[in-house]
UniProtKB/TrEMBL annotation:
Natural source organism: Oceanobacillus halophilus
Compartment annotation: Cell membrane
Source species taxonomy: Bacteria, Bacillati, Bacillota, Bacilli, Bacillales
InterPro entries: Poly_Biosynth_Transport
UniProt keyword annotations, A-Z: Cell membrane, Membrane, Transmembrane, Transmembrane helix
Membrane topology: Multi-pass membrane protein
Main localization, broad class: membrane
A single GO cellular-component term on record: plasma membrane
Keyword NADP belongs to the record: no
Membrane spanning residue stretches: 12-33, 45-66, 87-109, 115-135, 156-177, 189-208, 220-241, 253-277, 289-309, 329-350, 362-381, 387-406, 418-435, 441-459
Top-level taxon of the source organism: Bacteria
Protein name in UniProt: Flippase
Length: 473
């Protein structure tokens, strides 16, 4: 196994360990915290998480452009003086937005929990968007170990503060938000230290590098809008639920989404190290790598669905007040199939091939579909079951559109695989929704075995290709 393959495995171990820690802390927040705070308070916490998911819009693709333009570069060769100016220009912009949003919130909102949530979201925007530039630089230049350290510090500090509050029985959603911001702020300081030759160098005189800023925004804004539209695809439905039902109902549905989303942590870990690797790979190898990774990933993701029923039973016994929301695991658990494939494979490949414009087009089309469906399910019919089901349907539509487009570029055939995976997913949702017993596992096991038999030859080739990639890459 050569040096490149060893580095790949080493980087994966860094990201795996940091994301494993994130998974443990997410489990604490998602599964432990609801036991100790009220349903409505948990709803406000989820509202904060929901809102902060969109603060990245306010760097206008600046950080995404840096990620795309400098992905695969070596950190030592970067123009440090240029990035010194870029960093402080971004901080100034975010500070301006922060002050503006605080003033606007005082004018248009009454004092209360929503005002607190929105003001803390504004502060989160200042911290997170500034940190993103440094994290994207570390990630793009393959300093994965340092990237992992920053993310670990953020979550460890947050976990320590949360656990300390639980031990003295002093916890509410406002303290949870405060602890989250403390972790993010200190991790920003640490990221600044890791990039001190960019952030703190005394040899650089600050100047406004507007041309570089415009170039980065020009390149990154398509990806930023694509990511923003991608988040809104689910976000529109969640917003509809929050507006048509109570904050408590929003919290219960969000809990189920969070449980499904926790599975994405490991998938994102692979995606973080995959992008720089693909940028440095010969283009003729991309189709073979794609098919290999696709077959391997889908076999695993379809297998993960086996844990649905035992996990659901454990959660209902642990969080009986959330049983009404946990029933939606049957509808939302399969979303990890489509989200996982999008995050690890399709988006990573489209970014590598610089198809941000098509990513944006697909996401805007699917976002339009999402808005129409949300209006129908949450306003016209006001049916929560249909609203939640629409989430996985919309994600499936986006995944299929995107992969069919990518398959044409790579000149590979995936239509039969898509149909096979959709059939298995529909079967799972049907039996999980209508059968509330261990028979779910038996029926799905039989279907999964049929899938493995059909894919036996492909999976055998995939196994051989993975060995070759590790040994010869």
């Amino acid at each position: 196994m050569n040096h490149k393959a060893i580095n790949l495995l080493r980087n994966f171990s860094y990201t795996l360990s940091s994301n494993l820690l994130s998974l443990i802390i997410s489990t604490l927040v998602v599964l432990i915290i609801p036991k100790f705070i009220g349903v409505e308070e948990y709803g406000y916490w989820q509202l904060y998480i929901f809102y902060t998911g969109y603060v990245g819009f306010f760097h206008f693709g600046w950080n995404d452009g840096i990620y795309l333009r400098y992905g695969g570069e070596h950190y030592e060769k970067l123009n440090k003086r240029l990035f010194h100016s870029q960093f402080y220009m971004l901080v100034m912009l975010q500070a301006l937005f922060f002050v503006s949003f605080i003033l606007i919130s005082f004018v248009f909102l009454d004092s209360g929990n929503r005002l607190f949530v929105l003001q803390m979201t504004s502060f989160c925007m200042l911290i997170v968007n500034s940190r993103y530039m440094l994290l994207f630089l570390l990630q793009a230049t393959n300093r994965i170990k340092d990237y992992a350290r920053v993310t670990i510090l953020d979550r460890v500090l947050y976990a320590i503060l949360i656990i300390s509050s639980l031990t003295i029985n002093f916890i509410d959603f406002k303290w949870m938000i405060t602890f989250d911001l403390v972790g993010k702020s200190l991790s920003l300081i640490y990221a600044m230290y890791l990039c001190k030759d960019i952030v703190f160098s005394k040899t650089f005189s600050f100047y406004f590098s507007f041309k570089e800023m415009i170039d980065n925004i020009h390149v990154g804004i398509k990806l930023m809008f694509s990511n923003f539209a991608s988040k809104l695809i689910i976000g529109v439905v969640r917003f509809g639920v929050e507006r048509s039902w109570s904050v408590s109902t929003f919290g219960k549905v969000s809990l189920t989404l969070s449980i499904s989303g926790m599975m994405m942590i490991f998938i994102n870990a692979i995606g973080i190290i995959l992008f720089p690797l693909l940028r440095r790979s010969p283009e003729e190898k991309l189709p073979t790598v794609y098919i290999t990774m696709r077959d391997f990933l889908m076999a695993i993701l379809l297998g993960i669905l086996f844990i649905y029923y035992p996990l659901k039973e454990i959660l209902i016994n642990w969080l009986p007040h959330y049983e009404e929301g946990l029933k939606y695991m049957a509808l939302l658990f399969p979303m990890l199939l489509f989200e996982g494939k999008m995050a690890l494979l399709i988006n990573t490949y489209l970014k590598t091939l610089r198809k941000e414009k098509m990513m944006l087009t697909i996401n805007l089309i699917v976002l339009t579909i999402s808005i129409i469906i949300t209006v129908i399910t949450t306003i016209i019919f006001k049916n929560l079951d249909l609203a939640v089901l629409s989430i996985v349907i919309i994600l499936a539509i986006r995944s299929i559109f995107s992969e069919l487009y990518l398959s044409k570029i790579l000149k590979v055939s995936v239509a039969k695989d898509i149909i096979l995976e959709l059939g298995l997913t529909v079967l799972f949702i049907f039996i999980a929704w209508f059968i509330d017993s261990w028979y779910i596992i038996i029926i799905y096991f039989m279907a999964y075995v049929v899938y493995l038999i059909i894919k036996y030859k492909d999976l055998t080739v995939t196994y051989r290709n993975i060995i070759k990639i590790l040994v010869k890459s």
